[in-house]
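REQUEST ID: PR-0412
SUBMITTED BY: lab tech R.K.
PRIORITY: routine
TASK: structure prediction, single protein chain
INPUT:
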Amino acid sequence: MKALGTHIVCELSGCDPRSLTDVAAVELMMVGAAKEANATIVETAFHRFQPHGVSGVVVIQESHLSIHTWPETGYAAMDFYTCGDHTDPWAACEFAARALGAQSMLTTEVKRGIEARKGEFTHVVTTDHEERSFAKKTA
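STATUS: complete
OUTPUT:
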């Protein structure tokens, strides 16, 4: 199956609330995730909401990475969409989970841009609701 891109929808739970509210730290983490995926960064845009929460996107030559955070619940919703063979959206996803101190990660992978018939494209869900737990950090 030849796909133009891979899109990972990622739910991170049990994240460090401080990590989710610091707009500069979230942007730095997302830039690091893009680099981890071997992507070429074009532009970034991030915003901190009041009283809390951050939304942002890293536009990459190969598509985009986005995040929306809810510090009050320790939750982050993320998308990692990359095109081409040289990028690895899973590397970006794992990097983000570790950087935000997530306790669990629920993902769905979608292969996008599959030619169904001449000039018409579709997508296929290849991994639905894969859950990973992370060891809780001890002091």
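NOTES: The radius of gyration is 15 Å.
REVIEWED BY: pending
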